[in-house]
Design a protein that fits this description.
The protein folds into 2 domains: about 10-125, 3-Layer(aba) Sandwich (Rossmann fold), CATH 3.40.50; about 140-245, Arc Repressor Mutant, subunit A (Orthogonal Bundle), CATH 1.10.10. About 35% of the residues are buried. The strands form 3 sheets. The protein has a 5-stranded parallel beta sheet, sandwiched between helices. Strands 6-7-8-9-10 form a 5-stranded antiparallel beta sheet, with helices on one face. The protein is of the alpha/beta class. Helix 2 (about 40-50) runs parallel beside helix 3 (about 65-75). A hairpin with a 3-residue loop joins strand 12 (about 235) and strand 13 (about 240-245). It has helices at about 20-30, 40-50, 65-75, 90-100, 110-125, 175-185, 195-200, 210-225, and strands at about 10-15, 35-40, 55-60, 80-85, 105, 140, 150, 155-160, 165, 170, 190-195, 235, 240-245. The chain contains 8 helices and 13 strands.
Length: about 250
């Protein structure tokens, strides 16, 4: 990430509408971000590579390459939080955007207070609830008492180092995918409802956003290398998700 602990957070606004671009820039600056604003997808990719921002807001209908392609290119080198903002409210756009690596989606016209709330929630990423010890997962402490490592079969998550591995092969996860995996592995026997994951990972009560969980779980499964014979995340029909028993 571009910022280090205690440093000013960097935000990149990619929006071709000058009025909306100025509004988002002002809103994020009041949240303590140092904001760079550009008007096209290619400029967004170039500035993201140069500045390594902590947050990117991305309009879907950009000139040149659209927001989905811009997001895909940024995701090749950045783990910034990405919020897509669009005038269209078509479900397919939302799903494609999330599958490309966006963390959240807001439709125009939007309330600046909602944008602030969602950005703040992403950067808080609270960890709630006690760990439930079970034979399916182990928590180890390495390099000091505060370094947490979770193990579930061939999966290993270095929580403090924010690195995830399968069979010693490091996985390329977005920050949201990493946080989802961490929550599931911390309490592997717990069945997480979509609403509970929204509260824990996204810190939101918006029930209409359960699609966020579904799409990110799908992306996570793909990156974990699940197939017909190997499953790590189990869908509990009508309830939610938990880690698959490997016994």
């Amino acid at each position: 990430m571009g910022s280090v602990s205690g440093a000013e957070r960097q935000a990149l606004v990619v929006e071709d509408d000058e009025d909306i671009r100025s509004l988002i820039e002002f809103t994020l600056s009041t949240q303590g971000f140092a904001v760079t604003a550009v008007g096209s997808g290619m400029e967004g990719v170039d500035h993201a590579r140069e500045r390594d921002p902590d947050l990117v807001t991305l309009d879907l209908g950009l000139p040149g390459i659209d927001g989905i392609e811009t997001c895909r290119r940024i995701r090749e080198f950045s783990d910034a939080y990405v919020v897509m903002i669009t005038a269209r409210d078509e479900q397919i756009d939302r799903l494609i955007g999330l599958e490309t690596g966006a963390d959240d989606f807001i439709s125009k016209p939007f309330d600046v207070h909602e944008l602030k709330a969602r950005v703040n929630a992403m950067f808080r990423r609270p960890r709630r609830g006690p760990d439930v010890p079970t034979p399916l997962a182990q928590t180890a402490r390495a390099n000091g008492a505060d370094h947490e490592v979770l193990q579930h079969g061939p999966l290993r998550v270095d929580v403090d180092g924010r690195r995830a591995f399968r069979d010693r092969q490091e996985l390329t996860l977005t920050r949201t995918e990493f946080d989802l995996l961490t929550e599931l592995m911390r309490t592997p026997a717990r069945v997480w409802t979509r609403e509970a994951l929204l509260r824990s990972v996204w810190d939101t009560e918006w029930a209409s956003d359960t699609h966020l969980v579904e799409v990110h779980i799908g992306n996570l499964r793909r990156k974990l290398g699940e197939d017909k014979t190997t499953k790590f995340v189990r869908t509990v029909r009508g309830v939610g998700y938990r880690m698959e028993s490997l016994a």
